[in-house]
Structures are given as C-alpha cells and as structure tokens.
Amino acid sequence: MSITSEPLDSTDFDALLTAVAGPVLIPADEGYTGELSGFNLAAIPAADVVVGATNAADVAAAVRYARSNGLRVSARATGHGSPIEGRGTVVVTTSRMTEISVDPVTRTARVGAGVRWRDVAAATAPHGLTGLVGSSSSVGVVGYTLGGGLSPLGRQFGYAADHVRSIELVTADGIVRTVDASAGSDLFWALLGGRDGFGIVTALEFELFDLPTVYGGGIFFAGSAAGDVLHAWREWAPSLPEEAGTSVAILRLPPDPNLPPPLQGQLAVHVRYTHTGDPATAAALLAPMRSAGPILLENIDVLPTAALDAVHMDPPGPMPSAERGCLLEGFPASAVDALLAVAGPQVVSPLAIVEIRLLGGRLRSPQRVPNAVVGRDGAFSVIAIGVPAGPLGDQVGEHLVAVDNALATHSSGALLNFSGRTSAERDALWSADQRTRLETIRRRHDPTGVLRPADPTIVG
C-alpha cells in the first residue's frame, strides 16, 4: 500500500471551498440539483454539500471535511449507482475525473473515477484492445468493476474485477492510497466485489484483451412466442462453449420513433448473443435458435468490440427505474413456466425488461487474485426492471416481487450490481465468513462510519 497525501482536518466550509478545485455546492446554490442528478430519474438524492471533484486531492478534502463535521460521505460517478441520500451527508461527484492512459505493450489501462466504458473503448480500439465492458458502455468503469463487472464476454474472461491491477482511493481518514494484490491488501480484496463502504475510489488500473472484433447482436422474436423461445433458449444456452455468451429478455418496448419500426410499442423476446471466435462457427452455433419463433428483427454480424452496445441495445439515456435480481441454480421448464405466469405476454405489466443471462465458464472459475465478488456458483442471472411512472407505475414493486417469488425455488443469492436490494438484504449475498471479513475491514479502516455503504442499484 502506498500513501500519496497527508490528512489535514478542518471544519471550516471556507477552507473546503479553497481546497477543492471543482465546484462546492449547497442546496441553495444554482447547479446543486444538476450536480446530483443521475441515470435513475426515480431517485431524488440530497446532501448538505456536493463536491464536484476534479482529482484525488479534491476527494480527500471532501472526506476530511465530512469527518470533521460528523457527516457521512459517498460518491457518485456516472449516476448509475445510488449515493447516500438525505441531510447529514456530503456527496462527491467524480464525473470530471476522466483521465485515461492506455499502455498497448503491457495491455493495461488506468482510468479516473468518472470514466465511462465508452471512453475506454475509444481509447483502446485503435490498439485492437478491449476491457471487459458490460452490456452498456454508458456505465461508469469504477462502480461496475467494484461490483464485480459482468460483461457479455465474461464467460471467456471472467468478471472485470478479476483483472484489476491496482486501485487508487481515498480512505475514511482522508488519505489518498494505492492498493494492489502484491501487497496482499485487505482493502484490495474487499473493494473488488464488496464495493461500498471501504473508500472512495479515484482511479483503477486493469488488464486489457486483444479482441478487436466479436460476432454478436440479437434476434427479436414476437412476444406471442415467448414460451417457445424461452424453452428453446434454456435447452440451447448451456450447450455453448466459453467463447459464447447469451441472454434472453422479455421486453415491453415503448412506441418510441427512435426504435426500429418493427419494435415500436411491441412486446418482444430478445435473444442476445456474442462469440469471440470464427464467425462461421459462431453462426452455426446460433442457428438452432433462429427457428424458435416468428422473427421481428435480427441484427447479428461481426462487430468492432467497441460497438458491443449493439448486442443488448440498452436505453442510452436517463430514465426512472426500479429493479430486482437473483441468481438461478438452473433454469428448468418449471422455472420458465413460473416466470411466464407473472411476466409473460398475457400479463399487463409495468416491467420494461425481464432478462435471464447465462453465466458459467470463467465466471465460475477461481480468480487468480482472490476478491469478494459474489455469485460464482450461479448458472443464470435474472434481472427485472420496471418504470415507476405512467398508468402502471405504482405497481412496479409488486411485479418485481412476483418475479422474485416465481423463481424462489430455483434461486440463490444475486449479483451485487444486479441485485437491486437494500443494504440489509445485500449482506446476505456473501457467506457468513465473507460478511465477517468485510465488516472487520470496514471497521478497521472506517471506525466512525464516515463511509456508510449505499444501497446498490444496477450498474452494468
């Protein structure tokens, strides 16, 4: 572990203004609301002070101010995650920390806390390299990676957290530190998978992969064929090799003119697919799924890895949402039928998406450097997302619970980034021994609770 700053305590707000290069805002200030706004428009965050950090020193000053004034502190990067909300808090926004350096020789990248995956793709693609980006490149690198980081390429390469080289962070004492695996750091273990409550991460260094293109995209089937498609997918997906990844999603699409005409206002079943090997082999593996039902639209081809967003086609802009996820030990016919009963085409539902994603492969393998990522035993990951707005907005919660209950006999735990659970529920994601170790590390580095863990939302 290395230390690159010394603490300087001050309860003086004017001193904070002087110490921070970026904006420092209170609720009465113009720009306060915009600084706090995030991807999930259903969240209404609030804080006593918002610090727009431009570097690690700004973050350290904010933490020292919070500690000296008996306040709690958390960070917001790209806004997909949820910071501590309410009075008595300082929120540090790190969206201005967008430095990126790529070393094509060592195949590594170092990024600031505000960097999104699309920024990494722009910097690495000219070298034919890629990081383990998730289904949406608008997601921030840091929060996604610390929560595990599930990529469409994960079955071949593992979780993004498995490939982190070093972490720069500000701990609860207001000191900038760098931790890595070589020092056997307890913070390094806990941050990678435990994510919240150990420090505010200001930069990551991680491995890149030589993968300029992938074969991928998706097939949109008519929603009326949901049963046939899901049953076909559950039999087909587990037979795929590690270099292939797939998910299937029930989508309730809005009448958005930006969508392709066959999809506007439709209920569709979307089979997503990636393969990192020979395109002819990849196409042959996918062929059995093409006859699963009537096809509304297909967009599968060889893609630049930087264009991986085209596989899942996640919404690019902010929207109100609520979500709930779980892991499945298997996806038998009874689980498909139970899911269709609460989220299939015959149900009037506010759930915009119910996705089942194939896990396994290197996602299950022991990692080279141990970390706290949960879910390695899961065979499938499920995430349901609803929009708490419009005529059915007030029913989102009960529909999320219905999906969870329908799959309960087949489920065990959840991925942290996909759990959508409160901090109390989240603790159950780790084993008893892991929980004890995580809590011991938190108390050692933050005995007064300056960095209270935030309730997680989807970040990947």
Estimate what percentage of residues fall within beta strands: 15-25%
According to CATH, what is the class of the largest domain? Answer: Alpha Beta
The overall pLDDT average reads: 90
Structural class: alpha+beta
Query: How many helices in DSSP terms?
Result: 14
Give the neighbour order of strands across the main sheet: 16-13-15-14-18-19-17
Helical residue percent?
Answer: 25-40%
Radius of gyration: 22 Å
What does the largest sheet look like? Answer: 7 strands, antiparallel
Domain FAD-binding PCMH-type: 43-211
GO molecular function: FAD binding; oxidoreductase activity
Family: Belongs to the oxygen-dependent FAD-linked oxidoreductase family.
Keywords: FAD, Flavoprotein, Oxidoreductase
